[in-house]
Amino acid sequence: MRWSQMFVPTLRDAPNDAVAASHRLLVRGGFIRQLHAGHYSMLPMGWRVHQKISQIVREEIDAIGGQEFLLPTMHPAEIWQQSGRWDTMGEIMFRLVDRKGNDNALGITHEEIFATVAAELSSYKQLPQLWYHIQTKFRDEARPKSGLLRVREFAMKDSYSFDVDWAGLDVQFDNHDRAYRRIFERIGVPSFGVEASSGAMGGNSSVEFMTPSDAGEDDVAMCPSCGYAANIEKATSHLAAVVDEPGPAVPERFATPGVRTIAALEAFAGGAAADRQLKTLVMVVDGTVTLVVVRGDHQLNIQKLIDATGAVQVRAGEPEEALAALGANPGSLGAVGVTHHPVIIDEALRGRTNMTTGANEDDWHLRGVDVDRDLRVTQWADLREVSAGEPCPTCQTPIDIVRCIEIGHIFKLGTGYAEKFGVTVLSPDGKQIPVVMGSYGIGVGRNMAASVEANHDDKGIIWPASIAPFEAVITLMRVDDESMAVGERLYDELRQARVDVLLDDRDARPGVKFADAELVGIPFRVTVGPKGLANGEVEVTERRTGQTTVVPLDDLAAHVAHLVAQAKS
RNA sequence: CGGGCUGUGGCGCAGUUUGGUUAGCGCGCUUGACUGGGGGUCAAGAGGUCGGGAGUUCGAAUCUCCCCAGCCCGACCA
After folding, report:
1. In terms of domains, do A110 and A220 share one?
2. According to the model, what pLDDT value does residue A330 have?
3. Which nucleotide is nearest to A149 (CA to C1')?
4. What does the pLDDT look like over A484-494, one tens digit per residue?
């Protein structure tokens, strides 16, 4: 490919509304252009990278026995109704009505669709199976952002495993765990696995793969000592025991004029330290007004509440709802004596006594509250969000909270989908048994962006050779006949040596060409200029280090081919 | 969905407060010349419904109203 003929619209300035490094560089480098919020066009350079990532994913999934499919991205509503997710998915799913008046959905994921195909499985002898496709997903995200990192339309490799039993699923799950780590390694994205909430996917357990980045949207609790790592939606910590002083036999009401916050009650004479207060939150859980109680100095993690209740829709209650439910405004709420609403209470409050909480009357609180004695608890659950510095749950070293990009997610689904879609096989003893499923997803574009986040400097992108749009660029200092002839000769030789090479034959100044080559991140640059040509030499510069080596013309192809092979291994 | 911000040639911006010839500047683009190892210089050009609509006015990028889009924070998110 000749640069002069290729559409590579590099920009000197990034669009001012791009903030994330990957967003700025992918736009500046002419890889992507935005169509509208959350939808990006892949330009030729971008599509090359995208395809190389897809190919690596394909190779690694094939290596663990995957069979590639291509399933539709538009689905009839009935399939989603059959799994129940037509209703539970809510607004994330794009829906449209066809000319016959039928409801359709654009696929956000493909458990249902693969399951309908898998319904044809009939014998345990056919298992295990591992099926996948690389397909466009549509998700009507509330807030697309950061270029390719969160979009509404994107290519995802999603695979689905089918096994006779849980042991089989464990094998496929572990295979994916290893395959995913190899993929991230090959595309230059540092990764680690964390315990995660399974969210709307359902299933028993899941592992998310994360890469640390300020551009990410997930917080991960990590132990620097023992390696414990969990999404904040799932993380726990080892809490120091609090010793309560003995309290009264019944809670005491006391006046607290104007006190509306935990902090104010701490400061109030006769109040209580935050860790001796009960914080009562009014939440609406699938339409039911519910009291959620956590320790005064703790924060509720909503995903934990969703996981604990199995709810679809959870939101904070409005002040009017609190007033209607409890007769007081936020700031004076409490769960003592409440029997007409579910009360869900955080595990950290087990056995606590002599606590202070709102009295459900403005300007009044209760002290001497004994959790077991005075609250009618509907459900105990781990609800609190851990904070940095709290002791690791396994080794008690202070944990860190690290911002991360979620780059992959693997789920053990179990038999739920199989039962709903009749994916059963006959076992050796002739019984119909539901197939045990797993599902495994990795977004191509997001990983492309994640790789840029991990591989760039102030000059631009530094692609790993494995996914670079080109492995090498021949930069002609002059476009005179001699340079062009040498450039074309080297180009042919490199092609024959199976190097993916671009010939920068543009009639531009060297500075422009160097800057562009660095911006678009091609790993190796071959500089053809009059200085070297006088001695029958060219220069090879490595993008990552900037190191330049002088190489005789005749050795160039072999030299670069070797460098590329080394970089890709 | 709540809060904040922004829409002016392909990109980055000024002009809007205080309405007034033909809407400027840098980059990029075209042509030519000189150049040629880190975004060069000079000259001549092309390119704009000032996000959209309605209104006020002799006159609107500028004032008023409505709408739309994009970005950031939060909520939410397989």
Report:
1. yes
2. 84
3. B77
4. 999 999 999 99
Q: Which two tokens stand for residue A304?
A: 């934990």
The per-residue pLDDT for A203 is 60
Q: Give me the CATH number covering residue A65.
A: 3.30.930.10
Beta pairing partners, A367: A252
Is A326 in the same domain as A367?
Answer: yes
A495 within domain boundaries: yes
Asked whether residue A206 falls in the same domain as residue A257, the answer is: no
Residue A272 lies in a domain: yes
Same domain, A430 and A499: no
What is the domain range of residue A502?
Answer: 470-568
Minimum-distance nucleotide, CA of A27 to C1': B11
> Residues 6 or more apart from A214 whose CB is under 8 A from it?
A403
A91 CA to B64 C1' distance (Å): 36
Residue linked to tokens 């399951």: A115
What is the residue whose two structure tokens read 């990278």?
A: A49
**Straight-line distance from CA A12 to C1' B41, in Å?**
20
Q: Does the pLDDT of residue A366 top 70, yes or no?
A: yes
Q: How far is the C-alpha of A441 from the C-alpha of A83, rounded, in Å?
A: 19
**Do A428 and A519 reside in the same domain of the chain?**
no
Least confident interval from A198-207, A396-405, A495-504: A198-207
- Judged by C1' against the alpha carbon of A314, the nearest nucleotide is B76
* Mean pLDDT of all residues in A182-191: 96
Split into its structural domains, chain A has a count of: 3
ipTM of the complex, rounded to two decimals:
0.93
Q: Which nucleotides of B are covered by protein (CB under 7 A)?
A: 1, 10-13, 26-28, 35-40, 69-78
A228-264 pLDDT, tens digit each:
999 998 899 998 888 888 889 999 999 999 888 888 8
Which nucleotide is closest to the Cα of A88 by its C1'?
B78
User: In angstroms, how far is B62 C1' from A146 CA?
Assistant: 33
User: What gap in Å lies between CA A302 and CA A297, rounded to an integer?
Assistant: 16
Q: What tokens appear for A507 in the block?
A: 């009639």
> What is the reported pLDDT for A199?
63
Q: What letter does residue A498 receive in the DSSP assignment?
A: T
Measure, in angstroms, how far nucleotide B65 C1' is from residue A161 CA: 58
Distance CA A486, CA A475 (A): 11
A446 shares a domain with A304: no
Question: Do residues A512 and A440 share a domain?
Answer: no
> How do A472-476 and A501-504 pair as beta strands?
parallel
What Rg do the C-alpha atoms of chain A give, in angstroms? Answer: 29
What mean pLDDT do residues A54-59 have? 98
